[in-house]
Every structure is written in C-alpha cells, then in structure tokens.
Amino acid sequence: MAGSQYEQVLARLREASEILKLDPGIFKILAEPERTLEVALPVQMDDGRIEVFMGYRCQHSTARGPAKGGVRFALDVCMDEVKALASWMTWKCAVVGIPYGGGKGGVCVDPTKLSKNELARLTKRYVYAIQSIIGPEKDIPAPDMGTNAEVMGWFYDAYSVLTNTFSPGVVTGKPIPIGGSLGRREATGRGVMVSARELLARVGKSAEGMTCAVQGFGNVGSVAAEIAYQMGMKVVGVSDVTGGLYNPAGLNIPALVRYADEHRVIEGYSEPGASKISNAELLELDVEMLIPAALQGQITEANAANIKAKYIVEGANGPTTAGADKILEAKGVICVPDILANAGGVTCSYFEWVQNLQHFYWSEEEVNTRLDAIMSKAFKEVWDFAKEHNLSLRTGAYMLSINRVSEAIKMRGIFP
Ligand code: GLU
Fold first, then answer.
1. For all residues of the chain together, what is the average pLDDT?
2. Alpha-carbon distance values, 105 to 29, 59, 69, 354, 398 (Å)
3. Average pLDDT over residues 117-139
4. Is 345 in the pocket of ligand 1 (CB under 6 A)?
5. Ligand 1: does its nearest atom lie under 6 Å from the Cβ of 147?
6. How far apart (Å, rounded) are the C-alpha atoms in residues 335 and 325?
7. Cα–Cα distance between 235 and 333 in angstroms, integer?
8. What pLDDT score was predicted for residue 4?
9. Looking at ligand 1, which atom is closest to the CA of residue 69?
C-alpha cells in the first residue's frame, strides 16, 4: 500500500490540472510537498520502560499562507498518509478562500493504549521535535483523528514554554478557557450540513423526511447526524468503529448522541425497531443521502456500484477513491467532495487563530454566522463553476482551488 494514498491525491491533481491546462512547472511544484520532517520520539512510559514513537509533519504548500492542518494519532500514520492529508489541506483552505496553505502531522501510536500522562509526554516531545518548523506565522496544527482539545492544550503549552512566548495561535482546537473558539468542536459537522442544505436547495429537494445514513459518530458524524435530524431528515443508519445501527423508521439521534457522549461508542445502544448492521452494510443502505464521516478509502471500486444514495456529502477526508468516483459519476450520484464539505473545521480554526492574534473573542452566534457565510459562498462558487464547465463538484472544487494556489505562486514568483 506504500505510496497509495498520496497517489490518490496526485490522480486528482493530475486530472484537474489537465483540464485547467496548468503550467507544467506549477504542476511540478504542487506535486511535491514543500517540506517533510520525520522524527523519532522517545517517551518514558509510566512503568519506566522507554518507547520510541515515529512522528511526522508535512507542509505541502505555503503559497497562500502559513501551513494549516491537524495532527493525527493513529497506528496507520506514515509519511505517505501525512503527505496526502497535507495536500488535501492545501486544496481545502483554497476552496473556502481562507489565507492558509496546507499541512498535516501525526504520530504512529494507538492513543487508547497510553495513559493520560504518557500521552501528554508524547505530545510535548512531538512539539519539541517539530518546534523549529511550526509557529503562528509558519504552520498551525489542530486536532484530527486520535487527538482532541486536551492534546491541543498540551501542544500550546509546550510550544509556549519551549519558545518562552505566549503563543495560543500556534495551534487551534484548544479548550475554550485557554483560547479555543466557541463552536470549533461542532464546526466540521455543521459545515457538512451547510453543504448538504445548499446541495438540496439546488436540486430542489426538501430535507424534511429525506432518508440519510452517517458513517462515523465522532466529532464530525455525530454533529452532522444531529443537525440532519434537526433539519427533519430521517437518519436511518449510523455507525462507528464498533459497528452500525439501522432503524427504517429513523433513529432517535438525540438519544444516541447522549449515549455516545457517555459511553464514547454507540455499541450497546438500543431502541425499538433498530437492528445491528456492519459498516459495509451502512454504506450500501437504501437511503437518499450518505454522509461518510469516518476514515479515508471507504467507498472504493469494490462497493461503489452498490451505493444506493443519490447524494454523498463527504465529512471524512478522502472517503471515496478516485476509481470509485468514476463509477458513482456514471450512476449520476452527486458528491460534495471532502475539500469543500468538511472545510468547516479548518474555517473555524481560522476564526480561532484570528481571535488568538487579536486577543478578542467572538460569541458562538458570530462564529456560526461567519462559518455559514464562508461555507455557503464556497459551495456556490464550486457549484456554479462545475455547472458552467460541466464537471463533477469534485473536479470543479479541485480546479478552483488549484487555480487559486497557482495564482498565488505566480504572483509571488519563484525565489530567488
Ligand atoms: N483536521 C481537520 C481537517 O482535516 C481540521 C484541520 C484544522 O483545523 O486545521 O480539516
């Protein structure tokens, strides 16, 4: 599998660049990340043992601003994955027009196997190892899979101590009392549903009673499911790592969210009419809208033909492979791509950073209003561009964002 995830990104970059007739020199720049850093992180475990974890940070592009993107703690983290995720951040920030480039980082670790103290030491050692390339004006990490606000709090503290500065703007997704933004936790799921709402408005469909399935019940999926429920959708299926639940009459999402908040997983939840399904079955449910909000590589050439949803709104990064795209397109499925649909998280991270730099904090309502405005404007731009050129929303979103990054590179010129 080595090389495969970055290859997926390159396939899309290549396709959009060909249609754009992009300058081959600019393509060469965009095809290679600007900087990668691999670090070995020794950590003293609670029992006195020393473990060494491998850490990574990749800055794909800083043409439009400092690199921006999350830190992932998971066992499959490797440089190839980090590179793919970093370049998606470049396109994501460009598509919503926020002044950042793209970056991503991670540590190859199963965070559930570490104590809180071990996790804090690992995080701080990671910050120490990458401190020279990050900073509020250079590269601003954030949460991703396996990390959360608490980890970002340690991150912020370690950087500030190491540099002897007050630097809340070095990382976003922090706890609210130490410079986090109201609305940040919900922002990705909220943005997914702004995209869904804008899509339905354009295809002339009402959310009321529309059937929907959500894969993933973490930060993104649970919030998306809750908002879908509030919009009147019938959320008939949800799943997480422990498996899925299906209720043709519609699941009681508020009850499920309360359960998941308490138990961290949906396993063990039951309600009348609900039955267990697998993650694979969830994707193939007979629903109108599918929201993959878990891992990458879920909709592939192997199952794309069985997908029954007419609309896919991608909450995860890279849930659909390039091969699956072709099959879905031929079936007439409309897919709102990840780089647009899940950009609400990084958009709110931008708000957090702006608030940190100004030391002036906004109300949750202000955050949500601004988020909605940026997401709906980006949706409109992608939709109009794709319609005008008769392209899929994904290709349209890539073309728009590649254009923006390429413009920035040309305007700045090649150094020296
Ligand atoms: N990890 C999130 C993403 O993939 C958020 C990144 C950020 O806020 O910088 O979009």
1. 97
2. 20, 9, 7, 22, 22
3. 98
4. yes
5. no
6. 9
7. 19
8. 79
9. 9
Q: What is the pLDDT of residue 8?
A: 84
How does DSSP classify residue 49?
-
- Kindly list the distances between the CA atom of residue 270 and the CA atoms of 32, 190, 212, 253, 361, in Å, as whole numbers in the listed order: 48, 26, 19, 12, 41
Q: How much is the average pLDDT of 215-230?
A: 97
**Count of beta carbons in the 10 Å neighbourhood of residue 412:** 10
pLDDT at 256: 98
Give the pairing of strands 50-61 and 35-44.
antiparallel
Query: Can you tell me which atom of ligand 1 is nearest the CA of 172?
Result: 8
**pLDDT of 28 above 90:** yes
Instruction: For each of the domains in the chain, give its residue range(s) and CATH number, in order of start.
Output: 35-167 (3.40.50.10860), 185-336 (3.40.50.720)
Residue 98 dihedral angles phi and psi, to the nearest 5°: -95, 150
Does the Cβ of 211 fall within 6 Å of ligand 1?
A: no
Ligand 1: which of 96, 156, 346, 350 to mutate, judged by most atoms within 8 Å of the beta carbon? 346
315 Cα–ligand 1 center, Å: 11
pTM: 0.97
Q: Is the CB of 352 under 6 A from ligand 1?
A: no
Condensed to tens digits (0 to 9), the pLDDT of residues 380-411 reads 999 999 999 999 999 999 999 999 999 999 99
Determine the distance from the C-alpha atom of residue 311 to the mean position of all C-alpha atoms in its chain, rounded to a whole number.
Answer: 19
Integer distance in angstroms from the first to the last C-alpha of the chain? 37
Q: Which residues of 137-157 are buried (b: 16+ CB within 10 A; e: fewer)?
A: eebbbbbbbbbbbebbbbbbb
Check if 70 has its Cβ closer than 6 Å to any atom of ligand 1.
yes
List pLDDT tens digits, range 180-209: 999 999 999 999 999 999 999 999 999 999
Among all residues, which ones are annotated catalytic? 104
Atom of ligand 1 nearest to the CA of 88: 4
68 touches ligand 1 (CB under 6 Å):
yes
User: What is the structure's pLDDT at 3?
Assistant: 46
Where helices occur in 242-392 by DSSP H, the ranges are 253-263, 279-283, 322-330, 338-341, 344-358, 364-388
Q: Distance, CA 317 to ligand 1 centroid (Å)?
A: 9
pLDDT tens per residue, range 165-174:
999 999 999 9
CB-based contact 72:59 (threshold 8 Å): no
pLDDT, position 1: 41
The pLDDT assigned to 83 comes to 97
